[in-house]
Amino acid sequence: MRWCSLRQGVYVLKRRIKRGEALLPCCPEEKGFTLVEILVALAISSIVISGVYAVYINQLKGAKAQERIVAMRQNWRAGHYVIGRELMRAGYSVHIKDAVTPGFTQAEKGALAFSYVADGTDDLVSVAFALQAHQIVRTVTRAGTGIASPVAEEIEHLEFIYQLKNGTTTWAPTAGELDDIRGVRVTILARTSVSVGDYPHEKIFALPFPNGETENLYQFASDGIYRQMVTGFFNCRNMAGR
Predict the structure, then answer these.
(1) What's the maximum distance between 2 C-alpha atoms anywhere in the chain?
(2) pLDDT single digits (tens) 169-225
(3) Which of 52, 96, 113, 115 could bridge across to 102 with cysteines, CB 3.0–4.6 Å?
(4) Is residue 190, in this structure, part of any structural domain at all?
(5) Residue 198 is part of which domain span?
């Protein structure tokens, strides 16, 4: 850029003031941006900023979806672990014979209950599991006092399949078959608390089924809720020998 002398600048300025002209740079070589150039720059900047913002929003949605899915998985892991740990106590007693023999007292497709004798005592402890309002609720009863507490939340479905001592499986053992239970398959279908948008998710789940059944399908609408199924088998080792 070339600078004008002070005297030349003052002369040009006075002349332009007398003529009523705009006060532009004194040197004709000095040029700025035209209106078209400014508009083009603004348009390009807007496109770039819009693209960056869209990427940011997508990343934010993905992060939130992952957080909800992780929370869901922690829920079913907690429920599965607690149920399995308690099931392995079913029928336990330090004595060969008890006044009340511990074991299963309820065995249904969606709920079960059993008892065991607590270590170091002769107290009979009863434990029950059931699905209530999308929560797996455990009820522990000691000395006639029952305490219910949720062990997993946002659970869509809870199901039990019982294996009897003859190797057959069933959803609903008869009262005479309660002492024949040797293991329980626990199936949990968990869900996210809210929709996770476009995150891929299944709509049909094929759950395990016992002898005498051909399928056990659960189908859901396209509601954006992410669901996941977990199933596992737990041996009731203290029920053996009956």
Answers:
(1) 120
(2) 999 999 999 999 999 999 999 999 888 877 777 789 999 999 999 889 988 887 888
(3) 115
(4) yes
(5) 61-239
| Termini Cα distance of the chain | 103
| Cα gap 204→206, rounded to integer Å | 7
Q: 118 lies in a domain?
A: yes
Does residue 38 lie in a domain region?
no
**138 within domain boundaries:** yes
Q: How far apart are CA 62 and CA 159, in angstroms?
A: 31
φ, ψ of residue 166 in degrees (nearest 5): -85, 5
Neighbour count for residue 231 (Cβ, 10 Å):
14
In the chain, how many domains are there?
1
Helix (H) or strand (E) segment spanning residue 189: strand 181-191
6: nearest Cα among 31, 28, 30, 27: 27
Residue that has been written with the tokens 């922690």 in this structure: 74
**CA geometry: angle at 183 spanning 77 and 130, to 5°?**
50
**3-state SS class at 20:** coil
pLDDT tens by residue, 21-64: 555 554 555 567 788 888 888 889 889 998 888 888 888 887 88
**Dist. CA 183–CA 155, nearest whole Å:** 22
Residue 126 forms beta bridges with which residues? 115, 141
Chain-centroid distance of CA 86 in Å reads 23
Burial 183-193 (b: 16+ CB within 10 A, else e): bbbbbbbbbbe
